[in-house]
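Dear all,

This email documents one entry for the complex benchmark we are building for the journal club exercise. For each entry we list the sequence lines for every component of the assembly. Then comes the predicted three-dimensional structure of the complex as a token string, followed by one or two observations. Please use this as the template for your own entries, and keep the labels exactly as they appear.
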Amino acid sequence: EAQVTQNPRYLITVTGKKLTVTCSQNMNHEYMSWYRQDPGLGLRQIYYSMNVEVTDKGDVPEGYKVSRKEKRNFPLILESPSPNQTSLYFCASSLSTGSNQPQHFGDGTRLSIL
Amino acid sequence: KNEVEQSPQNLTAQEGEFITINCSYSVGISALHWLQQHPGGGIVSLFMLSSGKKKHGRLIATINIQEKHSSLHITASHPRDSAVYICAVYDNFGGADGLTFGKGTHLIIQP
């Protein structure tokens, strides 16, 4: 089954404790992206990747890192999480970049930083 | 960067009613996406359209590229249609490359 898998689904942690949210897709997609969703602000792009070893900042990259060492995986790293990073996070992928490609979303990761 | 506005923000209707959700954007695009977010949080792509109209079951999406406007219609609405509906456009201006989203329309269909 074609899917985007995020882990963990839920995480409560404390300020400053490094964490990684994993994202994996099994569709051989080139393009992957991370979004965060906050009440009243909607979904905003954090980072995106057009292919292996090609990553770039989205609208709200501060406090986050990503890597794309393999085509299927695109982890989101919070080196020193802070409470303002409490949010619902989505990973998404599409065959390639461009407007005519539907994006496939993971189920989301709800992060709470205390 | 594109500005995407949706209306209404919240909509409560009775089962069977015809539903319309509107989306407008500020900068010309080549395609627009409609997404559905279930109460559990997952997001599903409903439509991607660049002109005219698309239909899938009871859902119909239309777009007017000249007027920078799209609508999502639900015919014979049902409580299982209760969800947040999100409009998104593809942005690749100023170094960005990804979807810019509206804030969503929270739809509740009462039995």
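Observations: The two ends of chain B are 40 Å apart (CA to CA). Chain B is about 0% helix and 60% strand.
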